[in-house]
Design a protein that fits this description.
The complex is a heterodimer. Chain A is an alpha/beta fold. Helix content of chain A is 39%, strand content 29%. In chain A, helix 6 runs parallel beside helix 7. The mean pLDDT of chain A is 93. Chain B is globular. The longest helix of chain B is centred in the first third of the chain and has 22 residues. The chains are: A alpha/beta, B alpha/beta. At the A-B interface, helix 2, strand 7, helix 3 and strand 8 of A face helix 8 and helix 9 of B.
């Protein structure tokens, strides 16, 4: 589903990713862990198409297509979703209006009929339950005045509505208390499926107690230095990144 | 004499010369008492002429592009059918319609049936000719022309416009739509629409005034509008003006509201079109417990120049004024907002709030923003705020990352910026239809 080959990327002339390789197959959950500054968020942003990042080399194939050649909206339509580390507040645009536009753009791209107001409402009300959000969130401006936990739940809610093939979770656990973390993880687990893959980017092992990954990768200085199964995350938790840095 | 002064003087002379022809064309109206007012106005125009940008109030607006045309006083419009008008109409207001074409009343396209007893909706010229008392009491009594070249010009050349008179204790259920259509296919022309709206005690009325051009209006034209609004005690007037002129049009408008005790006037001003646009919107609160709302949205692109001047005069205590103006400018468009609030010595317990925000979509778009508060009373609450900004890049990326293409994301964010302005429109039906037109316009910015 996603193939990253020797990806190199920089921001403001600082090279951050220095030859990253990764292969994600349908239905797999991959976790990427790493210390601060290792390039975790850069990877998420480059994959989502943020223009401030310069791709200096390598390639990314998404279902065989050149992902780096597409604008952010085209990546979303092809089935890529980024859950933002810092979701953006958009005063004056209601959650409902925003999502209706997004859903119908994506449906149109997939050759499906646009949802009318009634069908859309039925669908979103159902998905709200997944993250235990009240209906009143539909009528509030996107993320405006939301607490940190509400913003992250709103990201998972959007994921549930837009039904992507690959969801990149950029530090979705940061700033969440344990109750909010459980709700978010629970929502993600319900959305796991044979055709949907996840790339979970996190600094802490804690999230992986709730979202059990198939693979864990350790990112250090712009490269994946070690890959393993979920036990690698536990080892990191126990011994810290230093132990791995010594080993390599 | 500067180059501009020379052009201003030449344009003035041209209008003065045309007056004789205009006067002989008035025919039956020649003996109406209003003709004395016309002559005084012509005299005033001859004294003050057209404004130069050396005047403080015209500092940011140079009218020289408007001066280089040889306007005819009447231009033949193409024959119009109801179909030609359809895209300018508001669903639900088709039967409350007054149509003016190139400043002339078009009776056959108008369709107005008055539901409430005593309400008069007519063309002003007919009311002037028939010696109406309301005309005598109010026409040219509020919009002073002595110091104002364009008001003087309009008063001298006022040909026709809408006349609305609502008797005491009457609520007009349906809004009145006044449609001004311009067609300059035949040549450059000048029109001086003149409107008078008088709402009696305890009355309520809403008027939607819209300005449009027919496709193929290839010549420049000048609409020089004056609207006088009177709200008697405890009246409520909602006035919505939609200016969607051709990109070659010059639109100069003065509106003067006279607000009496316990009454409220809301004026919503939407500017979408025009090459050079100037609105002077004045609210005079002459007694206690009045309320004024001045709400505006202007959108410009290309080389459009849109100037909004507002003046709210708090002369008496316990009045409230709310002002919200927002602008979205792309291309090389220029906007001006000058909002003056005067709180006179007797106007204790005044509440006056002014907000003015502009969104600049390009590096070449310009806004000149100037709030002016003059306060001579000591127990008042007044505030003003002005901001200028660009579209939020983070928000744009967020929307795009959800599959929404760039141009749609742009319009969504522009709509988010503008939506609270449209929220002031109390007429649901009009608001919804106008919202759709505004969103459509966003795509062209």
């Amino acid at each position: 589903m996603l193939t990253i080959k020797n990806l190199q990327a920089s921001i403001e002339d600082n090279q951050i990713l220095k030859g990253l390789n990764l292969e994600i197959k349908p239905g797999e959950v991959h976790a990427i862990m790493g210390p601060n500054g290792s390039g975790k968020s850069t990877l998420a942003n480059v994959l989502a198409g943020r223009e401030e990042y310069e791709v200096d080399g390598g390639e990314v194939l998404f279902d065989g297509e050149d992902l780096l050649d597409m604008g952010p909206e085209d990546r979303a339509r092809e089935g890529l979703f980024l859950a933002f580390q810092y979701p953006v507040e958009i005063p004056g645009v209601s959650n409902a209006n925003f999502l209706k536009h997004a859903v119908n753009e994506i449906r149109e791209h997939r050759g499906l009929e646009k949802l009318d107001a009634m069908d859309f409402l039925t669908m979103v009300k159902d998905r709200l339950k997944l993250v235990e959000m009240d209906q009143k969130f539909l009528h509030r401006s996107v993320n405006e005045g939301f607490s940190g936990g509400e913003k992250k739940r709103n990201e998972i809610f959007q994921l549930a509505v837009l039904e992507p093939k690959l969801a990149i979770m950029d530090e979705t656990d940061s700033g969440l208390d344990i109750d909010a973390l459980k709700i978010v993880a629970n929502g993600i687990n319900k959305l796991r499926g044979e055709d949907r893959s996840f790339l979970v980017i996190t600094h802490y092992q804690r999230l992986l107690n709730y979202i059990v990954p198939d693979y864990v990768h350790v990112l250090v200085d712009g490269q994946i230095v070690e890959s393993g199964d979920k036990s690698l995350a536990l080892e990191l938790e126990k011994n810290g990144y230093d132990a791995i840095l010594e080993r390599i | 004499m500067s180059k501009l002064d020379g052009k201003l003087a030449a344009a003035k002379d041209l209008f003065l010369k045309k007056y004789e022809t205009f006067e002989s064309g008035l025919n039956g109206s020649y003996n109406a008492p209003f003709n004395e007012t016309r002559k005084s106005a012509l005299n005033a125009f001859s004294n003050v002429g057209l404004p130069s940008n050396r005047l403080e109030d015209w500092k940011y607006t140079n009218i020289s592009p408007l001066l280089k045309h040889d306007y005819k006083l009447s231009a033949t419009a193409r024959n119009l059918t109801a179909d030609d008008l359809s895209k300018f109409l508001f669903e639900g207001l088709e039967n409350n319609l007054m149509v003016f074409v190139n400043g002339r009343f078009n009776k056959s396209l108008s369709n107005y049936t008055v539901a409430e007893a005593g309400v008069v909706v007519d063309n002003l010229r007919h009311q002037v000719d028939s010696g109406s008392d309301v005309v005598k009491d109010h026409l040219s009594r509020h919009a002073g022309f002595e110091e104002e070249g364009f008001v003087a010009l309009n008063t001298a050349f006022a040909h026709d416009g809408v006349f609305v008179s609502v008797p005491d204790n009457t609520e007009v259920a349906e809004p009145i739509h006044v449609l001004y259509i311009s067609d300059s296919a035949d040549g450059e022309f000048f029109a001086a629409p003149r409107n008078l709206i008088v709402a009696g005690k305890n009355s309520k009325v809403a008027v939607v005034e819209s300005y449009h051009a027919l496709r193929g209006s290839d010549h420049a034209y000048l609409n020089n509008v004056v609207t006088e609004i009177v709200a008697e005690e405890n009246a409520n007037v909602e006035h919505i003006k939609i200016q969607d002129e051709d990109r070659q049009a010059y639109h100069i408008c003065r509106s003067q509201s006279h607000i009496k005790r316990d009454s409220k006037v809301t004026q919503i001003n939407i500017d979408m079109g025009g090459r050079l646009v100037r609105n002077d919107l004045n609210m005079e609160m002459s007694d206690q417990n009045c309320e004024a709302e001045l709400i505006g949205l202007y959108m410009g692109t290309g080389r459009q120049h849109i100037d909004n001047h507002t003046f709210i005069d708090h002369a008496m205590p316990h009045c409230l004024s709310t002002e919200l103006y927002k602008g979205i400018l792309g291309g090389k468009a220029q906007g001006v907002f000058n909002g003056k609030v005067m709180v006179r010595q007797d106007a204790q317990k005044t509440n006056a709030y002014q907000t003015n925000q502009a969104l600049l979509l390009t590096d070449d778009a310009v806004i000149n923003s100037k709030p002016e508060l003059e306060i001579y009373a000591d127990d008042v609450k007044c505030s003003h705020g002005a901001t200028v900004g660009q579209l939020d890049e983070e928000a744009l990326f967020y929307l795009r990352s959800r599959g929404i293409p760039r141009d749609k994301a742009h319009s969504l964010l522009q709509y988010a910026f503008a939506s609270d302005v449209l929220g002031y429109i109390g007429l649901d039906n009009v608001r919804e239809q106008l919202e759709a037109r505004v969103v459509e316009r966003f795509h062209t910015l």
